[in-house]
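re the bet — no i am not wrong, look at it urself. input seq straight from the record:
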Amino acid sequence: MPQIDFYVLQDTTADAHLRYACRLVEKAYTLGMQVYVRSADEAMTDRLDELLWVFRDQSFIPHQREHDAAHPCAVIVNQTTPPKHREILINLALDASPDYADYDRLIEVISAVSEIKQAGRERFRQYTEQGHKPKHHAVS
């Protein structure tokens, strides 16, 4: 059963949850962990790919899209989940990943944008109904 963490942001800017996801990916990278980031669509994948190059001055997080390399730190996926390791999954899509339970840790990043917030509440309820005990982290 995975550890499930919800990081709930107060920020309503369009990229808030993507920028926060970059911080989480960077932290995983510095700890030597691999992470998959599940985006909502191709446009989000493009934006996240761009942000991972530039979100912080003098930082670069090695990453790839889908299955481009054998040993990535971060892989950005668009609705499909890669078949290899199952360490960390950061879900940025509005629905739950069908195989989230196969990961050691699931991270949901929720911004204060109405649609994202509502979908996050639904996923929290869904995980709870399935017997998980998600943790809530308020991020200011």
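see?? The CA atoms of residues 117 and 128 lie 17 Å apart. told u. also The radius of gyration is 14 Å. so pay up
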